[in-house]
Each structure stands twice: as C-alpha cells, then as structure tokens.
Design brief:
By secondary structure, the protein is mostly helical. It is built from 5 helices and no strands.
Length: about 130
C-alpha cells in the first residue's frame, strides 16, 4: 500500500507540473498532458528513484529526473501531432520536476516498505550478524 501511496503522490506532483509547463505555456489537450505525467512518473520512479537515487544521491537523481521527464515529454511530442512541446515548456518542465523531486526524495526515503526507503534492520538482526 505504501508503494501505491508514494506513486500517487509522485504522479499528482508530476501532473501539476505538466499542467503548468504544457497547458499554460503550450496549449495541449489535457489527455496528452495526463499521458506525459503518467509516463514521466513511471520513468522517473523506475530509473531515478530505484537506481540513480540510491547510487548517486538526491541532487544527481533530481537533475536526472528533470532531464528524463523532459526527454519523455519530447518523445511524446514526436510520436503525436496532438501534443506540442516547445523548447521553453520542456525546460520549464525539467526545472519543475528537478525541484519537485529534490523535495520528494527525502519523503520517499523516509517511507517504509518502499524502495529505495528500506527499513533499517532490527536490533536483534544487527547483533546476530556480528556474532
């Protein structure tokens, strides 16, 4: 249940940022903005949160998430003519995602039973390993 809640928070954050970047700066259909938010949420969780964040830390993962989100939005704009992402809106989306992820990652790490926020071993488990 924690994973679902964390992904829902991440999706809502990403969707709001996508609305700002792709509906206010570029006028795009809300369905495609929703699609971009879903794809960016999934991509950033699978790549940024599960691999980059534990290996390289919050700042690198946040910047990487912003860049990955913009790349994924750009790919959507290449695949369909109904979604148009300008360079300015892609940049705004990348910056918003990077800032949002910078504050989201500590929440992710504090949340138990969700990767990469692993529960610390119990005291008894630590002692068993040292004996």
């Amino acid at each position: 249940m924690n994973t679902f809640r964390v992904l829902l928070v991440k999706f809502i954050m990403t969707f709001i940022m996508a609305i700002v970047a792709f509906s206010f700066f570029d006028v795009n259909p809300s369905g495609f903005v929703l699609l971009v938010a879903l794809i960016a949420t999934a991509g950033n969780y699978l790549v940024g949160d599960l691999y980059v964040l534990p290996a390289m830390g919050n700042v690198t993962a946040s910047i990487g998430d912003g860049i990955l989100g913009a790349i994924l939005a750009y790919i959507v704009s290449l695949v369909t003519t109904a979604f148009d992402a300008s360079l300015a809106s892609l940049f705004i989306f990348a910056v918003l995602i990077a800032v949002g992820e910078y504050f989201f990652h500590p929440y992710l790490r504090r949340t138990k039973n969700v990767a990469p926020g692993q529960e610390p071993p119990e005291q008894g488990e630590q002692q068993e390993h040292h004996e």
